[in-house]
Amino acid sequence: MAKKGAAVTLWRRSTITMIIIIFLGFGTVIARLFYLQVFKAEELQKKAVEQQLHDTTVAAKRGNIYDCGGNILAQSITAWDIVLAPAEFDDDDEKSRTIVAEGLSKILGMDKDDLLKKTHENSYYVILKKKVDADLKDKVLEFSNKIYEENKIGGVVQLIENYKRYYTHDNFAGALLGFVGSDNQGLSGIEYEYNEELNGNAGRIVIAQDAQNNPLPYQYEQKIEAADGYSLVLTIDENIQSIMEKYLRETIREFHVANRGCAIMMNVKTGAILGFACEDSFNPNDPYTIADKNKQQEIDELPEDKQDEAYNKALNAQWRNKGVSDTYVPGSVFKMVTASAVLSEGKVKVTDHAFECDGSYVPYEGARPITCWDSTGHGSGQTVADALCNSCNPAFMQMGNMLGREKFYEYFVAFGFSEKTGIDLPGESGSVFFHHEGEPAGMGLMDLAVSSFGQNFKITPIQMVTACSAIANKGKLMQPHIVSQIVDSKGNVVKATEPVVKRQAISENVASELCSMLERNAKSGGATNGYVAGYRIGGKTGTSQKIVDEEGKETKDYIASFCGIAPCDDPEIALLCYFDTPDPDINYYGSAVAGPCFRNIMTEVLPYLGIEKVYSDDEMEQLESTVETFTDTDVSDAKKKVEQAGLKAEIVGEGKTVIGQNPPAYSSIPKGGTVVLYTDEQSKNQKVKVPDFSNCSLSDVNYLASLNNLNVCIVGSSMGESQTYVKSQDIKAGTEVEPYTVVTVVFNQDNRIM
């Protein structure tokens, strides 16, 4: 019985132990299942989806950028991503991996060992190269087909369609358009400002796969189409932009401008920007290459540890849009604002001879005298128009005193200088004005004195041309803008920009008076280098000294600028040309540096815009005429026709019939010029040499032309001959030409008006 009892006890213990073990085992499993299903359910579901689905991004096509005429400036062209799918290899198939790595390394120029490592990754999507062109894509496709046919290696190399940003004119408008990064995100310029509108929304292709990572049948595939980005239609005109960039580059080269230049042209009635040129600019197709070869050479010559910093600094400088991001001391172009203010407040009338200048002026008692650019002075009895044409600093300090600090600042605000213009470009800076605690409008009395002629405060170029446009637009300050329309992929207008009047800065009457003064200044004052015959140009020069350079160090460098409008009787456009740090050993005055650039741009743009020429009586006398055909005509008849056209006839030879002429038929010749009529073959062999007209006065040019039997066409400044000189001639000195060939000489005004 004792043995039986012991056996029962052992059995019970074993049973209890088994029950405990079973309970603990199943309890643990149940607890684990409960934990996984309740607490870890969301995470596990996510992992299951990731294992069961293969997701491929479908790139959206970035919208185009057009000029106002519909010309494409930026577009997205088809490119391809080269993708490797390592998971398609069999686990132990090293031979196939080696074949693929060796072949792709030769095509893509990649390291074979790196590629071999990538073939062992547990992934269906390893990007090898992004956005390759069609040639490289075709080579990869050919290789992929070859390894399948010869080695039955399939699905490991894939081509995914993508898009690559392409700028149709390379360096054209680089700082304005900006560029995109490798992921098609805008990084600067319009591309950055309108990135959300341009970018679109990427699509997806989702493929289901089984436990062995094999794709399931097609019906399990889901495709979400990409939504293409919107396109932009700019206010920029491609032709106007090209003209502006051309003459900016020429001026920068001629005057060795050290810190770039810019030009902005605005439609004064709408605020639309017709051209926005910043030179020296970069190529958006290759934004990481330094555009300035001299700058790149300087970087290359630096010690290696200094090159990266210098390179990055140069990149940021060339990407920077000077027209909106840089502030500068405006100088005398700002005098149009001071003149507007003093007339608006009724402190002086246009007929009042209220201002005097003996070469300097003491703005308030105890202050140091401030000199005029003309140390001999402009005398007494100057009107506002006289002071503007003379660019007389003492006269404008007197206007500043008439206004007082509060009123001066009131007009500073009215013309938009106290705030950003709000132009639709990134990186716009605000002005830098005086901020003295306790002073009215933050200005001291000396601040008022120097501000009245545009010194010691800073504004942006876009602020200056916007203020000038307000004067041209009957006193209305407009909101400047670059984009006129946002359109979808079907051409439907999503958004259109309407002209916005921000405020009435000055009255229509005062604005009209200022336009007349600016016109007088361009015809016979200090701005004649910007004048274009036949067009009612108005303008003001500016020569301002930089107080500190870009690194905050004191400097004696200058900024040369010219700001003007056309036509003055009914202004359509305003243009600012601005050059930062021209070489002082050549010239740094606004009239000499920026004035001719302004004139050259206007000479081409105004006819392009369809603005008709209206000549004054003086200009009519200098007009050119078109030469008729006189060949195969009796000599006497030909001579009469030449004289009837207001020209002189020079008959050469002994024949009775005209067999040749110079200038040739349908070419232009100045009124009163001479036409040579050749009457025999021997007479046609005559030649004359073109003299060097450089730095000659008008009378010297006429004398040399007459002495050498040449016709001359005069272009440029209309000032008196004692104040002008020849800047250039279209036929090189010493060239042999036929007698009475037309030589075009360009005159510039020789002055140092600030």
Tell me what the structure shows.
This protein is α+β, with helices and mostly antiparallel strands. Among the domains are: 2-39; 55-231, Alpha-Beta Complex (Penicillin-binding protein 2a (Domain 2)), CATH 3.90.1310.10; 624-749, Trypsin Inhibitor V, Chain A (2-Layer Sandwich), CATH 3.30.10. Helices cover 36% and strands 21% of the residues. The protein has 22 helices and 31 strands. The strands form ten sheets. Strands 2, 3, 4, 5, 8, 16 and 17 form a seven-stranded mixed β-sheet that branches. Strands 10-9-21-20-19 form a five-stranded antiparallel β-sheet, with helices on both faces. A three-stranded antiparallel β-sheet has the order 1-6-7. A hairpin with a 5-residue loop joins strand 9 and strand 10. The N and C termini lie far apart (131 Å). The model has no long low-confidence stretch (mean pLDDT 87).
- What share of the residues lie within helices? 25-40%
- What is the beta-strand fraction? 15-25%
CATH third-level topology of one domain? Penicillin-binding protein 2a (Domain 2)
Q: Average pLDDT, to the nearest integer?
A: 87
- Terminal Cα span: 131 Å
Number of strands: 31
User: Structural class, judged by helices and strands?
Assistant: alpha+beta
Rg from Cα: 38 Å
Full CATH superfamily name of one domain: Penicillin-binding protein 2a (Domain 2)
CATH architecture of one domain: Alpha-Beta Complex
The unreliable regions are none
How many H/I helices?
22
Shape, please? extended
Largest sheet: 7 strands, mixed
Could you name the CATH class of one domain? Alpha Beta
